[in-house]
Amino acid sequence: MLQVSYLSEPSPKLASKRLGRALWLGLAAISLVLGVIGIVLPVLPTTPFILLAAFAAARGSQRLHDWMHSHPRFGRMLQDWERDGAVGRRAKYFASITMLGSAVGLFVFSPRWWIAAIVAAVMLVVAIWLWRRPEPESRSR
Q1: Average model confidence (pLDDT) for the chain?
Q2: Higher confidence at residue 127 or residue 4?
């Protein structure tokens, strides 16, 4: 006699999907934590980690994704980025000043000048890219 169990093991495809969602959720959580730390730690950027967290949350947890989009601190930034690829002027100024301060700190404390020069050059490229991004049209920042 054939017996069917409704409590059988999940299919490999379902288990793989669950693992993928768990990995995306883990990446979202780590990125969100790093982004929040970046608010108070000037050498750690906030915006890229928050954008990565939203990207990963969309694939791992719709609830986390929705929470981030409705968050008073991150919500508008995420909506502007997703709608227009836009970054507010205040965020651009803050990022640029932070990168400048970090570059100065690198030149003062780095054991080799060329290490500081390479990192400063990368930050300069990021700043140029950032200032070329459009600004949100609907709200002034």
Answers
A1: 85
A2: 127
Do 32 and 61 touch, CB atoms closer than 8 A? no
Residue 44: CB partners within 8 Å, gap ≥ 6? 34, 37, 38
**pTM for this one?**
0.69
Could you tell me if 31 and 49 are in contact, meaning their C-beta atoms sit under 8 angstroms apart?
yes
Give the pLDDT confidence score for residue 10 in this predicted structure: 60
